[in-house]
Amino acid sequence: SPARLILGVLLVTAVLSMWMSNTATAVMMCTLIGPLCFSLDKSSGLRKALLIAVPVGANVGGIGTPIGTPPNAIAFGALKAAGVEIDFLGWMLFAIPLVLALLLVSWAAILFFYSFSDEDRERSKGLDMPPPERGGLAAVITALTFCATVLLWVTSPWTGLPIAAAALVPLMVFTASGIMSRNDINTLEWDILLLIAGGLALGQGMEATGLAAWMVDQIPLAGLPALAVILVIASMTLVMSTLMSNTATANLLMPIALGLAGIASGAS
Is 54 helix (H, G, I), strand (E, B) or coil? Predict the structure, then answer.
């Protein structure tokens, strides 16, 4: 049915975006659902719902792991620099229930806003497409490397292996096996990586110079309960990220949030 098809797209997109770039996940999923979408009329509710489900699933799924989206990496690094120890698995235990809840809410919202015709219900059963070709040795190596990397990330609290070191495993395997070339590495999103590093440096600079503490003092939140502080910082993040990059928003607000967390803990 259209409802179950949309749920499947949401879930698959969310799971993939937990381990790879949200942008790459969205591009790949749009390619996968393209034949079905192009077979539907432009006014089709199912076509619109499927296309909306891809970015929604990618954004929500990115919350699930520290590497799912750049703001997560910024928060993960800032917390570690501030002395707050949180491991890869600990992040997932907190974030996965939130991801599941948001996916269900998103699914219900999409079903509420879009209606489906009889043609949509018929098309949702699938298209007559040739079976996919086998990926060969490169696909096997990629799948095994993916599983090994995820296992190293999740078990980092017990193995003691830093998650940054585990992240080098795919790079070494793919370059050594020829799956990735120099040109592929040059096309990586280096600007995003620089933004993450710059955000961590900005946070440490604001903390070291006392700027973050001064900015926190200008916000009249002292004495308020922790929940009120959380709502304020969440509202600020929501408004700013609507108008600018999520990564830039995390860079600017993370040092302030850490300071507000100190106020909240003192008030509570």
Answer: helix
- What pLDDT sits at residue 201? 73
Which candidate, 254, 143, 162, places its Cα nearest to that of 205?
254
Q: Report the pLDDT value the prediction gives residue 215, as an integer from 0 to 100.
A: 65
In sequence order, what are the residues at sequence separation of 6 or more whose Cβ sits closer than 8 angstroms to the Cβ of residue 163?
66, 67, 88, 152, 153, 156
Q: Name residues of the chain where pLDDT drops below 70.
A: 120, 123-135, 188-189, 192-193, 195-196, 199-200, 202-204, 206-207, 210-223, 262-268
Inter-residue contact 63 to 69 (CB < 8 Å): yes
Residues 256 and 241: their CA atoms lie apart, in Å, by 15
What is the model's pLDDT at position 156? Answer: 77
The three-point CA angle 27-29-30 to 5° equals 65
Neighbours of 84 (CB within 10 A): 12
What is the C-alpha separation between 220 and 233, in angstroms, rounded? 12
Query: Do the Cβ atoms of 57 and 103 come closer than 8 Å?
Result: yes
Alpha-helical regions (H) of 114-210: 118-123, 136-154, 156-159, 163-177, 182-186, 190-209
CB atoms within 10 A of CB 121: 14
